[in-house]
Each structure stands twice: as C-alpha cells, then as structure tokens.
Amino acid sequence: MALINREQVAGMNIHYMRYSLEYFLDAQAKAGIKSIEFWTGIPHYYLDPTTYSDCKVLKKKINERDLELVVFTPENCMYQYQFAAAKPEIFEKSFQYFSNGIKACAELGSPIMQCNSGWGYLDEDREEAWKRSREMLSKLAEIAKQEGITLALESLRPEESNLVTTVSDAKRMMDEINHANLKILVDTTAMGVAGETLQDWFDVFHSDIIHTHFVDGNPYGHLIWGDGHHNLEEFLTVLKENGYKGYLGQEITDSRYFENPAEHDKRNMKAFIPFMND
Asked: What was the pLDDT predicted at 107?
C-alpha cells in the first residue's frame, strides 16, 4: 500500500561523520535516496558565527548526484552554540551562528532549517532559560522571514533539554512566539520518550507540522527501521491520514551505525519500499 513518495525519505549525514562528504552523497544515491537533510557538522561543512562553507560547492556536489537538499540542520548539540545560552557573549555568538545557518540554508535553496529550544542550567530557574530560548527563537524567526526560510522546532529528550521536551511545551513556545516563520518538527525519539504518539502532535499542530525526524526507537535511540520497536506501517498511516506531505528525516545517531553507514542506509530504505508509490 502506497503511503509515502520516495522523495519524502530524507537521508542524513550524522552517522557518516567518519567518512567524507562525497562518500555520504554517493551512498545516498546508491541507496535510492533522493532527498537530503543536511547536518552541518565537521568534517562535512563548516559553520560558525562569522563564516560558513561555500554553498555553491556543496550545492554542485549534491546536484551532480541528482539529490535535493530539503532541510538544513546546524549542529547544535555537540557544539557550544545553543538556543538558550546563558552567558551574553555565548548568546550573541549563538545568534550569529544560527543566523549564518539561515543564510546558508537560503543560499542552498532549502526551504526549512531545523531548530530546538536549547537548554538551561539545572541550577537556575527554568523560566529564565525559557525566556532566553523564546527571545532567541523570536529573533531567528525574523531573520528567517527576511531570508524566506521556515524554522522547524523540535522537542528534545530530558537528557538534552529542560525546556521543550513535550508536545505541551512545544505548544506553549509556539503560542508565545506566534511567528509565521516558526513551525513544528516531530522527532519520533523524543516523542516516544515522552510517551506521546504522532497523533498527539497532529491533534495539537495539524498542518503546522512541516518536518519529522522519523526513526525507529526503543523508544530511546535514533535507530534504523527494524532495529527498534516502533511500527513503521502504523506511523506512516498516521502521517497519511493527517495529510502530511513533508519529509521523513533519517536522523540516525546511534554509534552502532558509524562503522558501515552506507549498508545500514540501504537496509533502512528496504524497510520503506513496501510503502512507497514506486
């Protein structure tokens, strides 16, 4: 039964961090993947508060393989830049970092850039961190408006954040910012850890869900489909029943996939094939 188009499955490069950019792109083409959610981590791309890699070079390499970059994801978990930074200097550096991400996103022709709430210190009032996150995302939404980009806000796991970790947290942040250039990204791992369902998110956000990190899990782990306990057909059916037309970002982060990511991506795509229209 056709539940998705092939173009909706968006390969990611996080689990290729020990391989070259060219190897990753070749592997996506060989796996039958057409769309890319591009993670900006080194060694594949350089982004900082003052500069970023030549987008023309990256775009050429992607186009040469008949791939399309559909979502741009600045690294924001392993680096020092984050959306709720406490120190004024780091807050400003983070703002410039993500602003450059938005500009690079626009140069690359991608309509969407990923974002999250960031995190606050556990020994401070959570509301103070919440205010910083709201301020950052509000300012970035204005930059996104200027560049013709939409930001996609995802929830995180409690180990990653004490701010937006649930659908209700996401609703509060979205309501407080209330900006047309800030929409929603559903991460199935964070969703599963929170004990939520895809339908819970669609019930709240409806068509404001513009992207997903759509991976298997137990519920922890950003896993290849078939390595966790989520039901792929059920998840895809929920997407179809809610009229979802966006992408399914394959945010595979578990280190078990780092040694031979290309073979794991092929295995992952095989899981989707029975539900594709081609």
From this structure: 98
